[in-house]
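User: Hi! I have a protein structure encoded as tokens and I'd like to know what sequence might fold into it. I'm fairly new to this, so please keep things simple.
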């Protein structure tokens, strides 16, 4: 592709991304991220991936988009803010992570990414691509860094200087050449270690990885076994996910409320009392969370978490 055409198309893709609601958009050249291979293998072999054994599979695909999508040349990475100043919980009421307040982000973001793909194909009919939202073995955070969207904080979550870290990452891999953004190479966390120091369960390692066996998000979402008693006492009322490391991060002082209606918390969910949570029925669970990321977990698992935190909030 002619470089002028590539530059113009790249600018138009970013313009389209912003037009349909994304807060960030960058583009990286597709290539194997070899520097992540040993890190990932070491992390998995140490057992820090908990029961998520699948993270140790298909490592070659995880580091090379061309093995996921034949002919991959460019990786378009988007960021969608989900921060809100509204706080669910309080008064000894179980707490859920902000990202689960509204509709399932997978569905919201996938629709937006597919609109960008259609837009690209309208301009370049011969172009092909595929979009991903936590749906394939691809290193979203690593590609976001490559595309200039941010750097991995000490808590391993990507931080953007302008909007903080409360944003979802979406990826589109395409088989056309585009203009590429410069990767973020600096570390703007400095000497700050608040996320590490204030993690309730000491799950954050010094090397920007997480020991998920201690992580509240893992314990309340992915973990199928009983929550270890010593950790249950430190969960601080959380029944689905955890925002602690992001809440204490100084970079999130720049975070502003999202503008996505689908991410708004419903009046019913925000008004649930302690007793409502404890007596939540299967029928109400299915109704309340039918479009939520919480629905991906099982009712029994959520009730397990509720009983654990109610006991420790007493």
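Assistant: Happy to help. Inverse folding works backwards from shape to sequence: for each of the 314 positions I chose a residue that suits the local structure. Here it is:
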């Amino acid at each position: 592709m002619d470089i002028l055409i590539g530059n113009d198309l790249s600018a138009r893709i970013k313009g389209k991304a912003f037009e349909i609601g994304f807060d960030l958009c960058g583009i990286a050249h597709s290539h194997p991220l070899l520097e992540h291979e040993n890190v990932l293998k070491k992390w998995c072999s140490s057992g820090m991936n908990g029961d998520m054994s699948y993270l140790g599979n298909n490592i070659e695909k995880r580091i090379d988009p061309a093995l996921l999508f034949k002919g991959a040349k460019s990786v378009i990475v988007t960021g969608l803010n989900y921060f809100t100043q509204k706080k669910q919980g309080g008064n000894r009421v179980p707490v859920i992570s902000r990202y689960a307040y509204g509709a399932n982000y997978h569905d919201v973001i996938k629709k937006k990414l597919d609109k960008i793909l259609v837009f690209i194909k309208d301009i370049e009919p011969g172009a092909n691509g595929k979009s991903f939202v936590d749906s394939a073995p691809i290193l979203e955070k690593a590609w976001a860094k490559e595309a200039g969207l941010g750097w991995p904080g000490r808590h391993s979550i990507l931080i953007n200087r302008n909007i903080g870290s409360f944003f979802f990452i979406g990826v589109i891999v395409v088989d056309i050449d585009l203009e590429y953004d410069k990767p973020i190479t600096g570390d703007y966390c400095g000497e700050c270690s608040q996320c590490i120091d204030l993690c309730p369960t000491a799950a954050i390692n010094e090397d920007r990885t997480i020991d998920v066996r201690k992580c509240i998000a893992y314990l309340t979402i992915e973990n199928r076994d009983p929550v270890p008693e010593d950790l249950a006492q430190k969960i601080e009322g959380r029944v689905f996910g955890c925002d602690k490391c992001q809440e204490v991060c100084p970079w999130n002082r720049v975070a502003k409320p999202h503008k996505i209606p689908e991410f708004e918390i419903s009046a019913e969910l925000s008004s649930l009392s302690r007793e409502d949570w404890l007596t939540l029925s299967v029928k109400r669970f299915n109704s309340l969370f039918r479009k939520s990321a919480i629905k991906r977990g099982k009712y029994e698992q959520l009730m397990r978490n509720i009983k654990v935190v109610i006991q420790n909030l007493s």
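A useful reference point when you look it over: The mean pLDDT is 93. Feel free to ask if any position seems puzzling.
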